[in-house]
Automatic annotation (TrEMBL):
Native source organism of the sequence: Candidatus Providencia siddallii
Gene Ontology biological-process entries: ATP synthesis coupled electron transport; electron transport coupled proton transport
Domain (NADH-Ubiquinone oxidoreductase (complex I) chain 5 N-terminal): residue spans on this chain: 72-121
Annotated gene: nuoL
GO MF terms, alphabetically ordered: NADH dehydrogenase (ubiquinone) activity; NADH dehydrogenase activity
Name of this chain's protein: NADH-quinone oxidoreductase subunit L
Length: 616
């Protein structure tokens, strides 16, 4: 485990090599460096995890720490850079490196022939390195470097096709929204430091236990700041608007952002600092509300989208909402379990979507993608496995077990209203994901048909591995989540709940089959109604909130910019100079060398003085 630092160092070295090469390396060498560095990082994590579990089995409560250097040292104020390996950071680092490695392997095929091939791997290597810093550091200050780093990398990768100016605008928008998240985190760190005197995660928990803190407005404020930071990073309501704009990036980047890096950061932060949130039941209730609103907004919005990547983006938003809801009911392990399973099936769906996009000449509209399932059976099966796990079809999918854990946590805490909303979310999720699959693979036959050919192992290999882990095999990892947190929820009497949950997903599947396979004329009739047009506008535009931010922030900003374009402040400062210039001109007129002017001036002055004397 003393080589734990190599997990961060390997992809960082890969980034430096590829950056300094300035694109002069061949595609094969660039792919070898980019993929190989992440693979070495993954092997290092597996080795460290094996040693950690050996120690864990013999030492109760074992946690490994590795001190690398001191970032700041001013008198008694010291900030060391320490890596922390416990079960939570081990699971997160396995997700980051494992899923990241599979995406890198797939990218070596997907990005072949693209301009900036080595630049792509340089950015993704840096992305992995920053995310590992985020999940492995033992204090908030060191973690903040990784938190900022993933924001920078997301900007670089979303703007990868920088020749399109629209991509640049969307990247800037995303960068600014995530800066809001960073600002909240910074404020929260300062507030907690001022109150507690430390930002070390273990020391914060110890301080709370020793002081027996129950009601502190300052700590509540700091905890709220952490929540707002997590909302922005994980694209939750009301800061969820950036996630769909991130779809302009290459498809493997979308998979990386949605499954293993960016959007998982907020869930990780709350889980890591859960001791603070336990002090504030009202904040946990707020998290439940935010998660529920987001999962419903994401599900309904995905239901009417036609772009395949936007459907999956709204799906991610919805699934992260489930994780927030689990956190809100203190089902911490269920949230991390679903985060892990979600990484499997969401990466599978995105990479399968990328294969379809390549196959169909970069077409992303599901109604224009005409890939008959008989001619594209491999991608069809991959989509079915990923979609089934997303919709939590019973018994054979990993998503079934992770969502059942979340629903059990909600039921155990007696939150029946939130339980009903979650069940409804399962129904809508099943409808929108199978709608996407049926429209693409079971549409009407057209003159132009696309046929998929299996050629490269770098393409199909990651998909097969992800498909395996999206089944019940991925759920076997659930046992490794024991004792991550002291908070537990009962798992007995889950059978009835699982039956109900399965019923919702199965009903959703049959509804989708009825609407999109056999009774499609019904949809045409429904679309013509005024009510359907209202729902379309409501779900696709109103809930997007871009219009609200445009009215509240963007337009007022433009008005202020228009008022300031002539620099009125500078003009106000120059007013004194203009006044002096005017007085100078006035005095120059009075001193013109003409005697009669001077005599008239004296007479006028004498008259004015005489009048003043009379008045007084």
């Amino acid at each position: 485990m003393n080589l734990l630092y190599l997990t961060i160092l390997f992809p960082l070295i890969g980034f430096l090599f590829l950056s300094f090469s300035c694109g002069r390396l061949s595609e094969n060498i660039s792919a070898f460096i980019g993929v190989g560095s992440v693979f070495l990082s993954f092997i290092t994590v597996i080795n460290a995890g094996y040693e950690f579990l050996l120690h864990k089995s013999t030492i109760t409560g074992y946690i490994y720490k590795q001190t690398l250097w001191t970032c700041i040292s001013i008198n008694n104020f010291k900030i060391p850079f320490i890596l922390l390996l416990d079960k939570l950071s081990l699971i997160m680092s396995c997700i980051v490196t494992g899923i990241g490695f599979l995406i890198h392997v797939y990218s070596s095929w997907y990005m072949r022939g693209e301009e900036g091939y080595s630049r792509y791997f340089a950015y993704t290597n840096l992305f992995i390195s920053c995310m590992l810093v985020l999940v492995l550091c033992n204090n908030m200050i060191s973690m903040y470097f990784g938190w900022e780093g993933v924001g920078l990398c997301s900007y670089l990768l979303i703007n990868f096709y920088y020749r399109n100016s629209d991509n640049g605008k969307k990247a800037i928008k995303i960068f600014l929204i995530t800066r809001i998240s960073d600002l909240f985190l910074l404020i929260g760190m300062l507030v907690l430091w001022n109150e507690i005197g430390t930002l070390n995660f273990a020391d914060i928990a110890t301080f709370i236990d020793q002081k027996n803190i129950k009601d502190s407005s300052i700590i509540t404020l700091g905890t709220l700041m952490l929540l707002f930071a997590s909302i922005g990073k994980s694209a939750q309501f009301p800061l969820q608007t950036w996630l769909t704009d991130a779809m302009v990036a290459p498809t493997p980047v979308s998979a990386l952002i949605h499954s293993a890096t960016m959007v998982t950061a907020g869930v990780y932060l709350i889980s890591r600092t859960h001791c603070l949130f336990l002090l504030n039941p009202d904040i946990l209730y707020l998290i439940r509300i935010i998660g529920t609103i987001t999962l419903l907004i994401g599900s309904f919005s995905a239901l009417l989208q036609s772009n395949i990547k936007r459907i999956l983006a709204y799906s991610t938003m919805s699934q992260i909402g489930y994780m927030f809801l689990a956190i809100g009911v203190q089902a911490w392990d269920a949230a991390i379990f679903h985060l892990m399973v979600h990484a499997f099936f969401k990466t599978l769906l995105f990479l399968s979507a990328g294969s379809l996009i390549i196959l169909c000449n970069n077409e992303q509209d599901i109604f224009k993608i005409d890939c008959l399932y008989k001619q594209n059976i491999f991608i069809y099966i991959m989509m079915l496995i990923g979609g089934s796990s997303l919709s939590a079809l019973p018994l054979f999918t990993a998503g079934f077990y992770s969502k059942s854990a979340i629903l059990s946590g909600i039921q155990f805490n007696g939150q029946n209203l939130f339980l009903l909303a979650s069940m409804f979310g399962v129904l809508i999720t099943t409808i929108y994901i199978f709608r996407m699959i049926f429209v693409m693979f079971h549409g009407k036959e057209k003159n132009k048909k696309y046929s998929y050919e299996i050629k490269e192992i770098t393409h199909i290999g990651p998909l097969i591995i992800l498909a395996i882990f999206s089944t019940f095999i991925g759920a076997l990892f659930y046992k490794s989540l024991d004792e991550i947190f002291l908070i537990k929820f009962l798992e007995d009497k889950k059978l009835f709940l699982e039956i109900i949950s399965s019923s919702f997903s199965i009903v959703g599947l049959f509804v989708t089959i009825f609407l999109y396979l056999y009774k499609r004329p019904i949809l045409k009739i429904i679309k013509k109604t005024n009510f359907s047009r209202f729902l379309l506008n409501w779900w696709c535009y109103f809930w997007d909130l871009n219009w609200l931010y445009n009215v509240v922030f963007i337009k007022p900003f433009k008005v202020v910019a228009w008022l300031l374009k002539k620099d009125p402040i500078n003009s106000l400062i120059n007013l004194l100079a203009y006044l002096l210039y005017f007085l100078n001109k006035l005095f120059l007129i009075s001193e013109n060398g003409r005697i009669r002017w001077y005599l008239v001036s004296l007479e006028l002055t004498a008259i004015i003085i005489f009048i003043l004397l009379l008045l007084t």
